[in-house]
Amino acid sequence: MQRPGPIALCLLALLSGCVSPGYDYGTRARTENDLPLKADEAQIERGRPIPILDGVGWIVGIPSKVMLLSTRVDNHFVSHGTEQSLQEYLDANDLDRVKVRLNQYAPLDEWRRLRGNKSVAPGWRYTLGTIATLTYTLVPGRITGGDHYNPFTNTVNIYSDHPAIALHEAGHAKDFSRRQYKGTWAAAYLLPGVALRHEQIATSDALSFLASEGLTGEQQEAYKILYPAYGSHIAGQVNNFAPPPSNLAITAACVIPGHLIGHWKASHVEPAGAVVEPAPSPALAATPGYVRLGDDLSLPQRPAEAPTDGFTEK
Prior knowledge:
It is a single chain. By secondary structure, the protein is mainly α. It has one domain. Helix content is 51%, strand content 4%. It is built from 13 helices and four strands. The chain has helices spanning 6-15, 51-60, 62-68, 80-92, 107-116, 122-138, 141-144, 163-177, 182-188, 194-212, 216-239, 247-267, 282-285; strands at residues 44-46, 99-102, 148-150, 155-158. Helix 8 (163-177) crosses helix 10, helix 10 (194-212) packs antiparallel against helix 11 and helix 11 runs antiparallel to helix 12 (247-267). The longest helix is centred in the last third of the chain and has 24 residues, at 216-239. The N and C termini lie far apart (81 Å).
């Protein structure tokens, strides 16, 4: 029996759908041990603009821009509109202990957050958490880009000016807020295939949130960027077991279907408030008196009667 190729696997994963029928706002959270923000600390902070540094970061992010077909990816300039969308998501889901850094490099504060985040067991914080924070310190996203959520410090790092990407990363924070064993769930990301579950949860939450809020345009844009991004994660899993010369072909085989399916999904997003009646069964449609939603129910007018002279029979 022939095994399915990466394209088939990608199509299967993407066509499974990512929008939940009903959105579950910030409930069932386990955040009592999360490090709270300081009294005078802003939840969302911005890095100081440095044109030369941000320009280098923009150039370094060109591969991501090409892959996702958007110059807003890793552009190192996060607009206030994206910030507002992110803040609304955090407020709606009661994620008041999550730290957000918009194109900011703050290693000292991240080490402080690593030490103080008691919701992750010390064994995970001082092993994988140390590696993650050391990577943040030595390989600054301010240059390399790469929007991500660090569960060991409970920090969302954003370098792209795209609301859907920001909501996706915040979706990881929401997912972790509901986990009892946060460090174990973070470590599981390293296991084959488990990362796709992480990414699916965050993608689904972002899309479902936009649908629940009636933000049709934003939902359409989210499909167009998050589906190919999910395809890139599928490619990453496959490439772990494939010879390096085939990595580019595998990535294209997963990302291109993501673009196609994402645009197809976006074209089928119903406008906010639209009501779609399912097609009736043939038996129901043939029932006398059956009417569909939107049918004209006004009574037909009687035709005008011809004038008579008093002798003509009607």
